[in-house]
Every structure is written in C-alpha cells, then in structure tokens.
Amino acid sequence: MKPIDSIVLFVYLALVVGLGIFLARRSKTTAGFMAAGGALPGWAVGLSIFGTFVSSISFLANPGKSYSGDWNPFVFGLSLPLAAWIATRYFVPFYRRRGEVSAYTHLEQRFGPWARVYAVACYLLTQLGRVGTILYLVALALAPLTGWGVVTIIIVTGMLVTAYTLIGGIEAVIWTDVVQSIVLSLGILLCLGTIFSRMPEGPMQVFEIAAEADKFSLGSFGASLSEPTFWVLIAFGLVVNLQNFGIDQSYVQRDATAESEGAARRSVWLGALLYIPISALLFLVGTALFAYYSAQPGLLPDSVTKGDQVFPHFIASELPPGITGLLVAAVMAAAMSSVDSSLNGSATLTWCDLVKRFSARERDEAGGMRVLHGATILYGILGTCAALAMTRVQSALDAWWKISSIFSGGILGLFLLGLIVRRAHNAAAATAVTVGVLVIFWLSAAGQGWLPEPLRPALHANLTIVVGTLTIFLVGLLASRLQKPS
After folding, report:
1. Phi first, then psi: what are they for 418, rounded to 5°?
2. Cβ-count burial 179-216 (b if 16+ within 10 Å, e if not)
3. For residue range 46-91, what is the model confidence (pLDDT) as tens digits?
4. Element (H, E) at 373
5. How confident is the prediction for the chain on average, in pLDDT?
6. C-alpha triplet 119, 120, 121: angle, nearest 5°
7. How far apart are CA 21 and CA 158, in angstroms?
8. Which of 53, 369, 332, 23 minimizes the C-alpha distance to 175?
9. Is 112 left (phi over 0), alpha (psi -120 to 50) or beta?
10. Per-residue CA distances from 181 to 72, 91, 330, 367 (Å)
11. Which residues contact 403 (CB under 8 A, 6 or more apart)?
C-alpha cells in the first residue's frame, strides 16, 4: 500500500478502537456489557444488524461466487422480507415481553435444562465456525496488500477485534457497526465505479460480457432437490434467516438493546432491507470483475486461482492510492462488524446460561464481569484458531454454509416446537431433537461422501438445515400427539 492508504487504514482502526475505549465507561456492569441499558436508537441497532449480515463472508465470498459462477447465491437474501415480517410479528414481541438477554432461557422453562444447554452449545460451535471464516477471508484480502502472511493477519485481526469488544461491550459493538456499515457501503460503490470506468469499451461492456456468459442467472427453477435451484436457495435462506432473527443470540441480543419494542421492530426491517441491495452490489462486483478480466486477461496473474482471491487482487493492484486504503478499511469493517457480535453474544451466553445458571458459587457484579471478559478473550482465541484451520478450504462461502447447517443443529425446529405446539413437553422435545440430530449427521456424512451410494439422499447440502429443522418440529408434533395427557 501507498503511504496514503496506510494513513487511511490507521485512522480507521484508531477510530474504531477509540470508540470502544470511549464507551468502556458504560460497560462496567453485566447489564451494560450485555444490553447497553436498553437505550439505543432503532436506526443504530438496525445498521448493526445490517453490518452483521454483511460480514467478510458476504463482502469477499459473494463477489468470489459471482465471479466463478452466477447470481444463484443471491437468492438466499430474497427470503429476508418474509423472515423480517415473521420476526417483527412474532419473535421481537416474544423476547421483549420476556425481558431476557439470553435467547435460550425460555427453552429451559419450556423443556428443561438440557434444551437450554443444547441450544447454547449449538450456538457456540456455529459462532466459532463463523468467526473462523470471517477472519480467514479478511486475511486473504489483506495479505497481498500488506505483504504480511495470512496467518499473521488472522492473529493480529483476531486480537484487535477481541480487544475493543472486551473494552466496550455490546454498545461498542453496535456503534462501531454503524461506522463500519457506512465505510463498507462506500467501499463497494467506489470499487464498482472504478471497474466500470476502466472497461476498454465503456461501462456497458460489463453487462454485454456478463450476459453472454449467463452470469446473471438466479439458477434453475426446476423441482430438483439435489441442485442449488432457486427454490432450494429460497428454502435455505428462509430457514437460516428465521434462525438468525428467532434464536441467534447475536441478533436476539440486539432486541434487548433497543429503546423500545417499536425501535426493535424497525431495526429488524432496516437491517434486512438494507442487506438486499448491498448484497446485489456485491454480486455485481464479482460479475463486473469477470467482465473486467475477460476483456483484459493479461491483468490477472496465474497465481490467482480461487474466486475468493480475485476481489482482493483487484483491490491490491488496480485501485488508485487512497481508495485502496478505504477498501482495505471496508474489508476490515466487514470482518469486525460480525466478529464483535459473535464474541459478545458467546460471552453473554457463557455468563447467563452456563456459569450463572449452573455454578454453585454466587458471583457479584465484579465476578460476572470477570466471566464476561474471560469468555470474550477465550472465544477470540478459539475463533482465531478456527480461522487458521480455514486456510485449507476451496470456497469460504460453501464451507461456512456447511458449517452453519451442521452446527446449528436444527434449534429453530426446537424453538418453533415450543412456541407453536403447546402440548409438546420434555419427552416429545427430547425425542424430536434426538431424531433431528441423527438426520443432520446422516445428511452431513452423505454430503461429505462418507456413506455408500445407496445411503446418500438426493438432497443438496443446503437443505441439511431445512430438513433438520422440519424433522425436529414434525417429530415433536407427532410425539406430543401420542403422549398421554399429564
């Protein structure tokens, strides 16, 4: 990077860390660290939700997917309006009425302690995979720019995000997400402007080359369940986004930070509706890069072999001084705005659902803060280790979708069972989860090729979480019908 780029990046990082330090005084208590006193405006919470959606998974992997393929993965985001409507109609009022910071306290009240621990374990495993994917992608982008190794960048970034999350709590998470959302959106627009302005035959050449290669395809509209068709991606997106809004601690915890239920509802709509156009712009970046390097193939070196590497290469080699620094800051913003919420959410659950719930020793505020701080550091270290393991994958987006399908464990099905089927009790729920987990492992093993051909279902890997969720809900419904009234 040129000196001006380094200055831009340094100023941005100083701003983020400084904001965390400024807000530290409001995070001296467990309630402040976890919920910011429930006094934040809905627009800020909404931008934080949007920032969490547009992690480096989206910022770098989405252009990589559209560069290598088409816009089929964009269908995932088209389910957001329906998911947001369901969330604001049912989920937000449910959590606001209960007044709990943890998303899983009610599962114990509904089904027993095992359900709460199961959901917490699934969340923690999912977040470790998510943090690992995000840190890996940001390192992949920054390596050609800084000259540092991927491993070094993973470690440094992990330490930086852990530090300001540790200092400022959830309020630092949300307000830094506001800044980061603005920076990454500006970065996307500047990048697109640069690509279009440098096409040899003008901006329209992007669309001509892309259309000829069928780059704007949303996938097949057929009925196949073994391919990533439009309908498979819609079903996958709906379940994942309902899971985000309904039982993902990173999102549910934001409901508690909003100043009112109305503000919480507006934050969900703002985050969801902002993501769709920004996601489209990210896919357009990948499509435009395909056209850019198709028209000028000599600009892409042979060393760039993965779709995930093309956008970082463009940032490193094609952007003018100053803009490069801003794009690097945008990549950092995309990573930080998701990692911080994962770390804070994981620490919150460790305190509320594990230590405070099961520890025999009574802890005061100081003891609670020590647990929250220690857990934040622990998950920062574990997430960094997961990122180091992620360096061997071919497509980060595909790897993340597989991880989320497996580790999420179909807990949305358990949540819906408790919310909708009033007759379902402990035995029915335990039976449903047991069957559901076995189905998820079966589908996951089949997807990895670990089972003989006759035992492999003709289902795409993205349907694992859909089938797991439906299995838990339907088995629980059936078991509740068969059980004798108490």
Report:
1. -70, -30
2. bbbebbbebbebbbebbbeebeeeeebbbebbeeeebe
3. 998 998 887 766 777 789 889 999 999 999 999 999 999 999 999 9
4. helix 365-389
5. 86
6. 90
7. 17
8. 23
9. left
10. 24, 25, 8, 34
11. 126, 129, 130, 133
CA distance 297 to 276: 31
CA 135/CA 137 separation, integer angstroms:
6
Cβ atoms 343, 94 nearer than 8 A:
no
Contact 392, 444 (CB under 8 A): no
Distance CA 290, CA 286 (A): 6
Distance, in Å, from the CA atom of 190 to the CA atom of 319, rounded to the nearest integer, reads 9
Q: Read out DSSP for 221-287?
A: -S--SSS--HHHHHHHHHHHHHHHHHH-HHHHHHHHHBSSHHHHHHHHHHHHHHHHHHHHHHHHHHH
The two tokens of residue 372 are: 């929250």
Count, residues in the chain: 486
C-alpha 413 chain-centroid distance: 19
* Reported pTM: 0.86
Q: What is the pLDDT of residues 350-360, one digit of tens each?
A: 999 999 888 87
Per the CB < 8 A criterion, the answer to whether 47 and 272 are in contact is no
Distance CA(316)–CA(320), nearest Å, equals: 9
